[in-house]
Amino acid sequence: MNNTPSILLVNPPIYDFSAYDFWLKPLGMLTAAGRIADGADSFDCDQDRFEIFDFLDRGHQFYSDKPQFKSDEWGRGEFFSIKIPKPQVFKNIPRYYRRFGLPGEIFTDFLQTHKPADFAFVQAVMTYWYLGYEEVIKGLKKYWPGTKIVLGGPYCMICPEHAEKLGADFVFCDGAMDKGITNPQHKVGGFRIQPRWDVYERIETAAMKITRGCPFKCTYCTVPLFCDGFTAKPIEQAIEELKFIVSLGVKNIAFYDDSLLYKSDEVLKPFLRYVIEDKIKINFHTPNALNARFIDSEVAELMVKAGFKSFYLGFESRAGQFQRQTGAKVFDDELAGAVKTLAGAGANLNSITAYLMFGHPRFEIQEVEDSLKFVNSLGIRIMLSEFSPIPGTADGKLCEKYIDMNEPLLHNKTAFPIILFGTEKVNRIKEMCHRLNHSV
Ligand code: SF4
User: Fold this and answer.
1) What percent helix, strand, coil does the chain show, rounded to 5?
2) Are 156 and 263 members of one domain?
3) Engineered SS bond to 136: which of 12, 118, 251, 371, CB 3.0-4.6 Å?
């Protein structure tokens, strides 16, 4: 008799003004499933205990007759979405509000036609996406009333009291659901703890995280709040994980590391040498931003050779005062040097993008326009990363005078810059960014 509990993994739909599948994968939840499968959490191993319902899976058959949602060459693409009424707190935000992801009827049908699982894990990422988590929890409670619901992810860690009210049976507020870096001493049958990408019937894009934490303490970032220092996966574990993903037919892998290039002599470089020597054909991407300071010619060459197809560099602002006051993670000359080094290693300038923060409460010292022009002068693309105020961070504290930080919807990255600057200025900066990118 099989007594191992069955678990449904749910990646909820997104309620927001905009959303795009920029290699969005539920890595935290799949890692939690991997820990359970490996017996790390006192269960026995069982291949069949997991099922997944991923509202954001563009590989779902729902999309098979909708070519407009086809992925681009690197695995990104639009989600199906519908326009929905705006929550009252957004009444003055002149943008459409939408629900992104598979229609709710498909989930209802799934719940009605499948045997209820013992547990349902619901992944919760952005604080301002909680309407999606609420929708899933309501559906589970209605159709699978005996199933225990577990909610976990960054939202629960940042807004634990709010998360407790959504109706889940358990809320993981300590990041237990996301921890994928194992202690090297903890080996269960070798390096077997790995995210359960095999719960998908078909998957072309995946994500990896081979490090945890970051040596910096930027005032707008949650990483220093939740990660104590920097740790890396044992190289053997990272390689096992990569091989497993590749064996599933994945074409694109996004690194979700916060500081992928830190201590690269010990972590990334050996990993990439393995990829090159083993002739593994895969495209790598870096949506979580690379730190330009750590790009030396050796790591640049290894990245290009190993198959990195896009390089996103965190820059935020060229204003020295802003850089120093927010954590000093990178300066102008370091960005310029990194671009030169990457180009020297063979990276196409078109594949390099710098993130610039927009809508930060220290806007008076950020020199956004000047920063846009500076990045453009390097011949690379700019992506405006709209500021989302996060409770618990120093910069989140500065935002209390503009919004009610206890309402997670107001942490929204589209809404906050508009609240701060007004629509006209937001549109002007976006237009400028668009024009400069067009010139590259
Ligand atoms: S360098 Fe990046 S990950 Fe590290 S604290 Fe700063 S913003 Fe966060």
Assistant:
1) 40, 15, 45
2) no
3) 12
327 ligand 1 Cβ < 6 A = yes
Query: Is the model's pLDDT at 2 over the cut of 80?
Result: no
Q: Is the pTM higher than 0.85? A: yes
Quick count: other Cβ atoms within 10 Å of Cβ 401? 7
Dist. CA 313–CA 337, nearest whole Å: 12
Euclidean distance between CA atoms 399 and 12, whole angstroms: 28
The answer to whether residues 376 and 436 touch, using CB atoms and an 8 Å cutoff, is yes
Q: Given the structure tokens 């790009």, which residue do they identify?
A: 295
Partners of residue 263 on adjacent β-strands: none
Q: How many CB atoms lie within 10 A of CB 59?
A: 15
Q: Which residues contact 431 (CB under 8 A, 6 or more apart)?
A: none
Task: Report the atom number in ligand 1 closest to the C-alpha of 329.
Answer: 1
Domain end point (choices 171, 203, 235): 203
Structural domain range at position 346: 207-440
* Residue 278 and residue 242 share a domain: yes
Distance 221 CA to ligand 1 centre (A): 6
Torsion over CA of 310, 314, 317 and 319, rounded to 10 degrees? -120
Within a 10 A sphere around the Cβ of 104, how many other Cβ atoms? 16
What pLDDT does 364 receive? Answer: 84
For residues 183 and 108, what is the distance between their CA atoms, to the nearest angstrom? 39
- The mean pLDDT of the chain is 92
The atom number, within ligand 1, closest to the CA of 259 reads 3
